[in-house]
Amino acid sequence: MKYLPVLLVTLLTACGGSEKPAEPAAASVAASAPVSASSAQAERTFTPVPDIKPVWQIMDIAGQPQAAVEKILGQPQGACENNKYGKSCEYQTPPAEWSITYINGRADWILLRDPRIDNALTSPVWLGLPYETPTTAAPALLGWSNYPGLLDFAAHVSMDNKALEYIYIKVRTP
Fold first, then answer.
1. Closest to 50 measured CA to CA, from 111, 118, 152, 96
2. Per the CB 3.0–4.6 Å rule, which of 2, 90, 109, 135 could disulfide with 101?
3. 57-89, pLDDT tens digit by residue?
4. Cross-referenced PROSITE patterns, in alphabetical order (predicted)?
5. Residue 144 contacts by C-beta under 8 Å, 6 or more apart in sequence?
6. What pLDDT, in 10s, does the model give residues 116-158?
7. CB 117 within 8 A of CB 163
8. How confident is the model at residue 12 (pLDDT cuts 50, 70, 90)?
9. ∠ CA(107), CA(113), CA(115), 5° rounding?
10. What is the mean pLDDT of the chain?
């Protein structure tokens, strides 16, 4: 029993039983420090799509005269066809394929197949438009009617494997 006080003092000293609390480690101080406004803003910023580098700037084509479109896409493949809606032309810009109907002399109906655009939800971003939530969602289609300068933007998806098949854009004429 006479060794009990010595044992308690030794035990308390070994376990850090001093009255002064230990200093926190530098890492725990940094972790508990208040977050600055700029870093808090950076943490709250959410981008719904990854940083995508557009493969096309659709507004450089949509609504433009044929001569302006051909500066971007080159000459049509074969002869353009006149139909009851306007003049339809096919373009090849590997790996992309375009079908454009010019109504009143302007690129109005645009169909695009481009294997580099692999996601229907982000397809507007691939074409140089800002990300927006689709206004229409169906099993084989995502659609947007909220892009200024475009009447309708539709990404058509394969029912078999959910891959993007083509994009159809209407500029002015429904």
1. 118
2. 109
3. 999 999 999 999 999 999 999 999 999 999 999
4. PROKAR_LIPOPROTEIN (PS51257)
5. 124, 132, 134, 135, 136, 150, 152, 153, 154
6. 998 999 999 999 999 999 999 999 999 999 999 999 999 999 9
7. no
8. very low
9. 145
10. 82
pTM given for the model: 0.71
Q: Is residue 121 part of a domain?
A: yes
Which pLDDT does position 162 carry in this prediction?
84
Strands ordered across the beta sheet of 141-144? 81-82, 87-93, 96-103, 106-113, 164-170, 152-157, 141-144, 136-138
Domain carrying residue 67: 58-170
Does a structural domain hold residue 84? yes
Q: What is the CATH number of the domain that holds 93?
A: 3.40.33.10
User: Is residue 136 a contact partner of residue 145, using CB atoms and an 8 Å limit?
Assistant: yes
Q: What is the CA radius of gyration of the chain?
A: 31
Helices (H), 15-131: 26-32, 37-44, 66-73, 123-126
User: Domain tally for the chain?
Assistant: 1
3-state secondary structure of 99: strand
Unique residue bearing structure tokens 């947007």: 144
